[in-house]
Amino acid sequence: MIYAKARYRPLGDLYLTVEFGDELSLPLNFRVIALDSAVKARRLPGVTETIPTNRSLGIVYDPLTVSRQELVAQLQALEGDVQEIDALPSRHVTLPIWYDDPWSRECAAAHGAPNNVEFLAGINAMTAAEVIRTHSGTDHWVSAVGFTPACYQAMPLDPSKALTAPKYQRPRRWTPERILCIAGQLTSFYPIASPGGYQLLGRTPVELYDPKQRNPAFAEGPVLPRVGDRHRYVPIDEATYWEIRREVEAGVYRYQIREETFRLRDYTGRGSHA
Amino acid sequence: MLEVLAGGLQATIQDVGRPGYLATGMPPSGPADRFALGIANLLVGNDPGGPYLVGRRPGAAGVEVLLSGLRLRVLAETVIAVTGADLSPTLNGQPLPMWQSLRVGPGDEVAFAQARSGARAYLAVAGGIDVPLFAGSRATNVRAFVGGVEGRVLKPGDMLRSFPPSRPPRDLEGRRLRPDLLPAFGARWRVRVVLGPQDDLFLPESIEQFLTHDWKLSPTSDRMGCRYIGPPLEFRPRPAYLVEQAGADPSNIVDDTIPVGGIQVPGGVEPIVLHVDGPSLGGYAKIATVISADLGQVGQTRPGQVTNFAAVSTDEAVEALRALEGAIAEASIITP
Questions:
Q1: How far apart are CA A36 and CA A52, in angstroms?
Q2: Which residues of A touch B317 (CB under 8 A)?
Q3: Which of A15, B8, B82, B125 could bond to B70 as cystine, CB 3.0-4.6 Å?
Q4: Do residue A17 and residue B197 have CB atoms under 8 angstroms apart?
Q5: What is chain B's mean pLDDT, rounded?
Q6: Is any Cβ of chain B less than 8 angstroms from the Cβ of A15?
Q7: Please, what is the average pLDDT of chain A?
Q8: Does A89 touch chain B if contact means CB atoms closer than 8 Å?
């Protein structure tokens, strides 16, 4: 549900969250991002950083500079100001994916699971080719970034292109880096080798985490994904995978990123235009 | 300059940490025990930085030593201090006095043999350890491959250079922590928490159990998260849309912010305190948050030791932070 009034929850002495609801939805996430932009623009005293997530805005603050009560009052005032916001800047990022790649297959097999794309085909009553067509047939809205550096969660903007996927019953001990994955309706990503329980979709030759910041796409920081980005996944074959991988390793790959404006009303009410 | 002869279980370079990147999934890192690193730095005339997460300065970098095994050789005259856990530190085989600064010279050998109390010791060097800054901090995060020495734990052959000391070595030796401020590291720990953000998802009996049980630290604990063994905790029933969206486990929520100190309870078993290298986002209900002043208590607990969690208000948590930061100050140091 989306709450009638945002809830302010304490997280110890250094954080609080402004929580707009408990569910996963685009309008809810949009309100989080709108408040985040307003908090950043206003530079509230004592606020040191903000963490937009699916359904809440995490605020880190110095309680020796600003009291929780003062901060909540300031945030409540801002909350009213941003309620009517309907458009926000949003980057459109195209990412090449080798769906049903050999690393995902090997990783699934090593953990006693069936080929994950074929498993998803069974769950969603379609063929493996249709799973790939469906997943790559819409833009995905990045609604949260975190867990590990550059890990993110994204929801399909066209609800008719939503797949559903259970998590692994027993999480894997490891997953190779740069694997795209899905659980519930959310697409996610393993930027670095990690344990995990999401179903494996494919692998990208492109880095979303680069601590050495060699490529100009990482000029602002070592992590590419941002909340409010839209991703489009483009299926590629093995030859293209290796061609792009060589460019990435040489530091000459050109990321496909467009700066655009996203209007919420285009995606709600009358159905989807994704 | 110090040469690493043996890296031991896990020794990393840490300063107060790397806040500002939580929204990208980059943990702040920093010391598991801020007080101990802060005092070690003060003893050798360095900037202690801080506080955790909201401070403006990361302070000087020192070495965090987990349990045992680190051995170092001194290559040039300097002043050092060892604080935190008592890991039976030695200087040339003789017991090395903790919580005070010592002058050391070429050929001296510092070693950490075994843990007598606490889990992590801190070694500061006059001037602070000179490794490259990454995103404003020298703190090591081995999982993200950043900070410290090449983003990894220390290994034999590493050479640890220092910045110039703030004062000549002769003016920095013999400094001690005020005895009344020496922390007591017993076998039982009291850790204060603020309930929430998802305490309302747990059954009231389970909150009660969380706050009264003797929890034992699991060996599956590290700088990311510390697990506590005890009775299962139970959840209120959830609406169908959350079962579908967040996951089938009763502890599943639609992912939101995990604070440093947040206590997740996946599946209702083994509450996990997420620590300085922990994730910033997660999909399990969090019963409470460890107050920032007590993160060091969690970081100093050894597997098998007992912890009692006590609920306090956010105001009490802020007072505890003020007291802790107030103690990490030159006024806490006795000079010869």
A1: 7
A2: 12-13, 63
A3: B8
A4: yes
A5: 96
A6: yes
A7: 93
A8: no
CATH architecture of the region A90-266: Beta Barrel (2.40)
What ipTM does the predicted assembly reach?
A: 0.96
Contact B246 A58 (CB under 8 A): no
SS3 state at B208: helix
Q: Which domains does chain B carry? A: 2-175 (no CATH), 188-326 (2.40.100.10)
Tell me whether residues B257 and A11 touch, CB distance under 8 A.
yes
Per-residue pLDDT tens over the stretch B205-253: 999 999 999 999 999 999 999 999 999 999 999 999 998 888 888 999 9
Q: Do A221 and B135 touch (CB under 8 A)?
A: yes
Average pLDDT over residues A72-93: 92
A169 vs A171: CA distance, rounded Å: 6
Query: Least CA distance to B238: which residue of chain A?
Result: A22
Contact B256 A13 (CB under 8 A): no
Residues of B in contact with A223 (CB under 8 A): 21, 24-26
B183: exposed, middle or buried (Cβ count in 10 Å: 0-12, 13-18, 19+) = buried
Residues of B in contact with A63 (CB under 8 A): 54, 314, 317-318, 321
* A-contacting residues in B 2-41 (Cβ below 8 Å): 19-26
Q: Classify domain A2-85 at the CATH topology level.
A: Gyrase A; domain 2 (3.30.1360)
Average pLDDT over residues B55-62: 96
User: Model confidence over A158-188: pLDDT tens digits?
Assistant: 999 999 998 887 788 889 999 999 998 999 9
CB of B161 within 8 Å of a chain A CB? The answer is no
For CATH 2.40.100.10, list the domain ranges present in chain A: 90-266
Per residue, the 3-state secondary structure of A219-250, as one string, reads: CCCCECCCCCCEEEEEECCHHHHHHHHHHHHC
> Which pair of structure tokens corresponds to residue A138?
């819409």
Q: How buried is A262 (Cβ within 10 angstroms: 0-12 exposed, 13-18 middle, 19+ buried)?
A: buried
**pTM of the shown model:** 0.95
* CA dist A216 → A32, A223, A224 (Å): 29, 12, 11
Q: Of A13, A54, A148, which has the smallest distance from its Cβ to B292's Cβ?
A: A13
Q: How confident is the model at residue B305 (pLDDT cuts 50, 70, 90)?
A: very high
3-state secondary structure of A6: strand
Tell me if chain B has a CB within 8 Å of the CB of A40: no
